[in-house]
């Protein structure tokens, strides 16, 4: 049975209720955050959802959120998310009436769209013919030329003779950009600075295009040296309605891939916005478009920094990764629009009913290591804490703490989207939200994103696609040495965590004058903190500074007072790793105990000896207890310092040779430990 929803007329602005048959159940042929995103709207509309997953995603968030889920196959996309045949079988079998392809994978595959249609299942996207028309950047440009949409000067013909291509490039004038006609995801592009370099660049571009897209056709464009990427969200229904939901500026890119996106575009005159919107609608109409699409334009920046001319670049015939910024400024749910249109309904609103309110920015949070050339960083999300979501902070994600970022797919952790009444307000929101985004496990680009958001060029809205490369050194500085405050917080957390885990060691400290020394290893330097008990609190000595402190620790949450300043921080302990989140900054160090003193004898048993004369103050394990490597076994006080003897490996405590309170000499054996 299909349920009925009311649907409003869009094309003429008059609102007249009309009955449309909405789907009862849809299948989502995608994974990760976009699968979760689609499920969210489906749930809100009372539509049941079917997920499909690969073995790598069997326990993923989107699988749990869906009402039903079916296995596709092994992790590689070619054996799972690209298996159109299996996906269609599951859709039929599960009774799904429509398939949402998300983005990537099968979303721009005209064969899949056609196969859905043939099977009587609605494809939540444009008609196969529109995908085909825009699938080739060359053919799309030819079509756009006819539709009167401005194009970047260039060559997009069928003749691919290298000599002809060279001649075309010479005529356009260098620098030129060679682009794979079937390219995407920022791949298959070569900038050529002069004629002598053209032939080699062409060959290399064709090789990559063949390997990545199975098609070595290229086009040539004038390479704009300081352009902006401004794209228009369009939406069309199957009743002739077509509107644009304004623009997004995606100029902040790394290697032609989007890093930060925002809406509206900064410093964009209303007249330009309207001209671009009209051009985008013309582009959509030219291919008989239906559904959500994005027309990407490249825009010149004039000498005075003002936006210049804009040119059609390509059309993405799907929902775009950065669609949430449009949702934030228009108050519309684009997935709900997609469902309504795919079900045969009319657009929910007419052009004149759409308006921009405030400003939104999206940051793509990736598991990648900016210090290692942005190499993807896979592994388990050991700790994950996010800023609280609200009407101005939105998080689109497919993962939760404990999940792994796998090597098989895009290593995106989340999209963080913020909204403010003004761009300045949105920037502040983004800065604060990034400062609250905590990840331990894989490396991330969070600190890098925050530096961009704080950078004067971005803050001033002076964006172009070269922004990151131009300010590379400022945006990717070497890791800063830990501050006094950070080290003090780490030492407090260490002391409190130790007391919680080994209460036996806590009591004797109350009246003690003892000092403990903590050493933290940081890429720049080893850092030492001395901590002694003073009254109810502590005295800390860090790099020549003395601080009075008190603190409590609850889980990872550290509440500290440092010289009168109250500070909330988080300290995540993972193996020897300590990650401090305080004041919006993240600091990762290794905790090392230089006094852990071990000597391995014959037969694998280990003798733990006193590193110096002193007094045993606490035994931290029971005789016969199995302990893990690094577990504290005994505390020795010597020369007013406290030293922890830790287990040299996993093993069993056979015996202690001294009681708490007894004096020991340098080199005395303290613990009889049997390593496993
Ligand atoms: P959008 O244009 O929707 O903002 P992108 O152009 O960044 O997003 O990416 C579009 C699609 O291409 C997404 O499905 C994304 O996963 C995929 N993609 C992005 N980067 C790459 C890449 N380096 N290689 C292959 N696919 C990519
Ligand atoms: P993709 O399919 O990989 O998204 P696009 O054609 O959309 O390919 O181009 C991706 C990015 O490359 C653009 O956002 C822009 O930064 C850059 N780019 C594309 N065409 C040009 C050009 N003619 N001049 C300068 N930069 C360009
Ligand atoms: Mg593009």
Automatic annotation (TrEMBL):
- This protein's UniProt keywords: ATP-binding, Biotin, Ligase, Nucleotide-binding
User: Has keyword Cytoplasm?
Assistant: no
One Pfam annotation reads Biotin_lipoyl
Entry-linked InterPro entries: ATP-grasp, BC-like_N, Biotin_carboxylase_complex, Biotin_carboxylation_dom, Biotin_COase_C, Biotin_lipoyl, CPAse_ATP-bd, MCC_alpha_BT
- Please give the Gene3D superfamilies that the UniProt record associates with this protein: 2.40.50.100, 3.30.700.40, ATP-grasp fold, B domain
* Coiled-coil segments: none
Q: Which cofactor does it need?
A: biotin
**Residue ranges of the Biotin carboxylation domain?**
22-473
Tell me what this protein is called.
Answer: 3-methylcrotonyl-CoA carboxylase
- What organism, scientifically named, is this protein from? Chromobacterium sphagni
**Lineage, highest ranks first:** Bacteria, Pseudomonadati, Pseudomonadota, Betaproteobacteria, Neisseriales
């Amino acid at each position: 049975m299909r349920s009925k929803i009311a649907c409003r007329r869009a094309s003429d602005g008059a609102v007249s209720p009309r009955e449309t048959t909405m789907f009862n159940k849809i299948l989502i042929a995608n994974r990760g955050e976009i699968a979760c995103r689609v499920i969210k709207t489906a749930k809100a509309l009372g539509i049941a959802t079917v997920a499909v997953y690969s073995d790598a995603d069997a326990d993923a968030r989107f699988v749990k959120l869906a009402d039903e889920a079916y296995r596709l196959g092994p992790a590689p996309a070619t054996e799972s998310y690209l298996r159109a045949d299996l996906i269609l079988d599951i859709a039929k079998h599960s009774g799904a009436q429509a398939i949402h392809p998300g983005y990537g994978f099968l979303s721009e595959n005209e064969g899949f769209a056609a196969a859905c249609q043939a099977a009587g299942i609605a494809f939540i996207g444009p008609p196969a013919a529109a995908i085909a028309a825009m699938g080739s950047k060359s053919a799309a440009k030819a079509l756009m030329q006819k539709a009167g949409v401005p194009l970047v000067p260039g060559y997009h013909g069928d003749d691919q003779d290298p000599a002809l291509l060279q001649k075309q490039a010479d005529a356009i004038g260098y620098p030129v950009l060679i682009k794979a006609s079937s390219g995407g995801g920022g791949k298959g592009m070569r900038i050529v600075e002069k004629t002598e370099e053209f032939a080699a660049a062409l060959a290399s571009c064709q090789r990559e295009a063949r390997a990545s897209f199975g098609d070595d056709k290229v086009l040539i464009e004038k390479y704009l040296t300081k352009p902006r990427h401004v794209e228009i969200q369009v939406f069309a229904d199957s009743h002739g309605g077509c509107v644009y939901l304004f623009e997004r500026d995606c100029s902040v890119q790394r290697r032609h891939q989007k890093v930060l996106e925002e809406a509206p575009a900064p410093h964009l005159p209303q007249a330009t916005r309207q001209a671009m919107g009209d051009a985008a609608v013309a582009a959509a109409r030219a291919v008989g478009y239906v559904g959500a699409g994005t027309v990407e334009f490249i825009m010149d920046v004039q000498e005075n920094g003002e936006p210049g001319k804009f040119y059609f670049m390509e059309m993405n015939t799907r929902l775009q990764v950065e669609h949430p910024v449009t949702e934030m400024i228009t108050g519309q749910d684009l997935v709900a629009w997609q469902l309504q249109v795919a079900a045969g309904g009319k657009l929910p609103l007419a052009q004149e009913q759409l308006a921009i309110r405030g400003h939104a920015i999206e940051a793509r949070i990736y598991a990648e290591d900016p210090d290692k050339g942005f190499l993807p960083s896979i592994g388990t999300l050991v700790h994950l804490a996010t800023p609280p979501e609200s009407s101005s902070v939105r998080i689109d994600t497919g993962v939760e703490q404990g999940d792994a970022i796998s090597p098989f797919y895009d290593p995106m952790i989340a999209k963080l989207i913020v909204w403010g009444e003004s761009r300045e307000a949105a920037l502040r929101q983004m800065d604060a939200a990034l400062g609250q985004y905590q990840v331990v496990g894989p490396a991330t680009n969070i600190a890098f994103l925050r530096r961009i958001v704080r950078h004067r060029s971005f803050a001033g809205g002076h964006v172009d696609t070269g922004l990151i490369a131009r300010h590379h050194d400022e945006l990717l500085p070497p890791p800063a040495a830990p501050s006094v405050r950070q080290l003090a917080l780490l030492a407090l957390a260490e002391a409190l965590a130790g007391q919680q885990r080994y209460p036996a060691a806590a009591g004797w400290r109350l009246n003690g004058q003892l000092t403990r020394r903590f050493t933290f290893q940081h890429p720049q330097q080893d850092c030492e903190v001395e901590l002694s008990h003073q009254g109810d609190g502590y005295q800390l000595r860090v790099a020549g500074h003395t601080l009075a402190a008190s603190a409590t620790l609850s889980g990872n949450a550290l509440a500290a007072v440092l010289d009168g300043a109250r500070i909330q921080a988080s300290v995540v302990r993972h193996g020897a790793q300590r990650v401090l989140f305080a004041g919006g900054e993240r600091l990762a160090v290794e905790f090392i105990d230089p006094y852990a003193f071990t000597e391995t004898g014959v037969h694998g048993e280990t003798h733990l000896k006193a590193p110096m004369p002193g007094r045993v103050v606490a035994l931290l394990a029971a005789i016969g207890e199995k302990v893990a490597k690094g577990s504290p076994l005994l505390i020795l006080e010597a020369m007013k310092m406290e030293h922890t003897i830790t287990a040299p490996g996993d093993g069993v405590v056979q015996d202690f040779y001294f009681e708490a309170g007894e004096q020991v000499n340098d080199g005395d054996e303290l613990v009889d430990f049997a390593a496993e």
